Amino acid sequence: MLIEILQQTINGLAIGGVYVLIALGLTTVFGILGIAHFAHGSVSMFGGYLTFFLVTSQGLPVLVAIPIALVVGFLLGLLIEIIAYRPVRDANHINAFIVALGLTMMVEGINLQMFGHEQVVIPTGLSRVFRLGGVTVPELRIYVIIAAIVLVAAMMLFVERTKTGQAIRAVAENRDAAILMGVNVKSIPLIVFGISTSLGVAAGIMVGALFAIAPGIGEGFVVKGFAVLILGGLGSFPGAILGGTVLGITESIAAGFISSAYKDVIAFVVMILVLLIRPQGLLGRSP
Amino acid sequence: MLALCDLRVSYGAIEVVHGISLDVAAGECVALIGANGAGKSSTLKAICGLVPVGSGSVQFEGRDITNASGHAIVRAGITMCPEGRQVFPQMSVIQNLRMGAYTRTDKDQDADLVRMMDMFPILRERQTQAAGKLSGGEQEMLAIARALMARPRICLFDEPSLGLAPKIVASVFETLAQIKAMGMTILLVEQNSMMALNLADRAYLFEAGKIVMQGPAKELKSHPDVMRAYLGH
């Protein structure tokens, strides 16, 4: 029993890491622009597909393909901000909402055209499995968990310790005051989309390596990403981290003890229960 | 140093500032006084690039900065301490102060941080607290210190006494006098005309988007119309 719980917790940490990376991107974009960036999941999966393509068709080593995909993700983020969201910047929020939905369909279509409808798994060659007192830990999961922790820590350091990171927070908290501090509020959304998309691509690669990428998977992840935001408390970084981890572990435990067919149901039931008790989310501020 | 010429500001179709001209010389403290809605704050916001200038011009140290973007205006040396404090509520006091120095790249930022906390000991006590948890008076001190962290060439203050208890208002004005004594050029917007006229060298009286009177603060203070309408005599 205890071993099974430990086992599922480790599994949950890996998937939780993916949720956290996606949610961090969503929460930063939402904080700055008030946009629900639905296309984020599909763009993230594009990054996973791209890595798969670079490794299988171009024969690049995984460790070369991943940085390329992260950089492409960053540039893609800039492009999305300039082409898709900047034009509706000062318009009613419903416009950005529609743009987000349209963009989701577009990116899903592009993924389908470029990479086909077959599900793909990024071949990492990491097939060792460790056994620690009855708990089975595939090598890949460990790397995914470590990578997620490193990326989240890097993001936190960037936001808390650099002037640009502080400017991002400042714009989210009070746009006019940020202008008075000399922040160029036009360049901030660019940086935010670049970084968020890069984090998303990292999540996409993890999904492609741990499970598989297929059409529609990205939309599933973006829904989970928003669930994490609400669970953790909108606009809260620590909330997104806690929320993602909780959702990942709950899902895994539900899959292990009840049935994997019900894992999503159980994850959302937990979310509803949390919101009944704490409507502002786990770490959200009370309104 | 700063010169506005025939400045007009509108919100949509409604013009609120109807062609005003004023100037501030280096080292001077100039007050804009007048009733609520007379266009004083809109004038400051237009200088800072927060609202667009309809027509007319803003010159700063011989450069035309009319409708320049807000961040470029800060880099030119103009900093505003905005109405209602506008601190970053979830950021700590220290983080707020550091945001004030956002445009600076020099090595003296840490020294300035210490200087600000010497000037406002309450900010040292509360340095790790979220700014939103501070009282109104403390937030005003933070907003003033944050503005000074930019090492501006001219500092604009928009209604620094608004919504504060009378005792706190007095200490805010003491602080402003201290900043003035440091040689800072100040453009101050205030509804508390008596306090503003006591502090300022010169003043402009706004009425319905126009300047109706200007001169040395002492003269305005003893002008019968000003006394009757704004000073409560």
UniProtKB/TrEMBL annotation, chain A:
Pfam families: BPD_transp_2
Main location: membrane
Subcellular localization: Cell membrane
Signal peptide per UniProt: none
Membrane topology type: Multi-pass membrane protein
A single GO BP: amino acid transport
GO MF: transmembrane transporter activity
Transmembrane segments: 12-39, 59-84, 96-116, 140-159, 190-214, 226-249, 261-277
Keyword terms of this UniProt record: Amino-acid transport, Cell membrane, Membrane, Transmembrane, Transmembrane helix, Transport
GO cellular component: plasma membrane
InterPro entries according to UniProt: ABC_transp_permease, BCAA_transport_permease
PANTHER family in alphabetical order: AMINO ACID ABC TRANSPORTER PERMEASE PROTEIN, BRANCHED-CHAIN AMINO ACID TRANSPORT SYSTEM PERMEASE PROTEIN LIVH
Family named by the database record: Belongs to the binding-protein-dependent transport system permease family. LivHM subfamily.
Protein name: ABC transporter permease
Organism: Candidatus Raskinella chloraquaticus
Automatic annotation (TrEMBL), chain B:
Pfam (any one): ABC_tran
Name the UniProt record assigns to this protein: ABC transporter ATP-binding protein
Lineage: Bacteria, Pseudomonadati, Pseudomonadota, Alphaproteobacteria, Hyphomicrobiales
InterPro entries assigned: AAA+_ATPase, ABC_transporter-like_ATP-bd, BCAA_Transport_ATP-bd_LivF, P-loop_NTPase
PANTHER family tied to this protein: HIGH-AFFINITY BRANCHED-CHAIN AMINO ACID TRANSPORT ATP-BINDING PROTEIN LIVF
Matching Gene3D superfamilies: P-loop containing nucleotide triphosphate hydrolases
Protein keywords: Amino-acid transport, ATP-binding, Nucleotide-binding, Transport
Gene Ontology molecular function: ATP binding; ATP hydrolysis activity; branched-chain amino acid transmembrane transporter activity
GO biological process terms, semicolon-separated: L-amino acid transport
Source organism of this protein record: Candidatus Raskinella chloraquaticus
Residues in the signal sequence: none
Domain ABC transporter: 2-233
Tagged with keyword Nucleotide-binding: yes
SMART domains, A to Z: AAA (SM00382)
Family of the protein in this entry: Belongs to the ABC transporter superfamily.
